[in-house]
Amino acid sequence: MPVLSGGSDLDYSYNSCSSLTHLFPISAVEAPPAKGVHYQRARRIYHPDQAQKVDPKKEVMINVGGVKYLLPWTTLDDFPASRLSKLKFCSSYEEIVQLCDDYDEDTQEFFFDRNPGAFGMIFSFLAAGKLMLFRDTCALSFLEELRYWGIEESNLENCCFRKLFQKLEEFAEARKEEEMQEAADTTGVLEEETRFGQFMSKLRDMVENPQSGLPGKVFACLSILFVATTAISLCVSTMPDLRAEEDRELGAG
Question: Is residue 100 packed enough to be buried (19+ CB in 10 Å), middle (13-18) or exposed (0-12)?
Answer without folding.
Answer: buried
